[in-house]
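Dear support,

We are seeing what looks like truncated structure output for some complexes. This example has two components. We would appreciate it if you could run it in full and send us the complete token output so we can diff it against ours.
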Amino acid sequence: SQKIEQNSEALNIQEGKTATLTCNYTNYSPAYLQWYRQDPGRGPVFLLLIRENEKEKRKERLKVTFDTTLKQSLFHITASQPADSATYLCALGDDKIIFGKGTRLHILP
Amino acid sequence: NAGVTQTPKFRILKIGQSMTLQCTQDMNHNYMYWYRQDPGMGLKLIYYSVGAGITDKGEVPNGYNVSRSTTEDFPLRLELAAPSQTSVYFCASSSPVGLNTEAFFGQGTRLTVV
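Here is the complete output from our reference environment:
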């Protein structure tokens, strides 16, 4: 069955440093991969989408890479701020969208 | 812009009771989804729909039913509620313009079965 793994349940990063989150998947060949942010008590909010033929995507301080050979995506937040503290979810799909468990990111002031 | 609206926001059910979680979107999205999220866990797909009249099972469909009679509405029905269905339920929709687009989520329904 399709499986998505986000390697770290929680990650502590010092303010100003780059946070890197990992998403791995198996038994799947998705056409795209998405990253979402979720704050406590709220629904997920879309951040970035990267397609299978794209190696890298950027949006402001966010960068996503997608390696279909390794079946892995890396999500980077540069110059991290305490306001970036949240849970970040990786998602794969076509008709249906399936999510990983998420990584709780804490940016320490 | 209303986006995706879920009702109710909170509900307590007794074991064996039934209820319907409502979900409405006003963005003319063809794709709609129901997820459940247990504490500290990611989202698990219950059911999804790619258009009116079409529904399909997700990862954890047992104990639930859905219908999609209109583009806007995608209600989730719980029959014979069980404590294992205590969770936060999220409805989402995505754009009809091709595949591979972002999902917009509702604010969630927090359900407790006692």
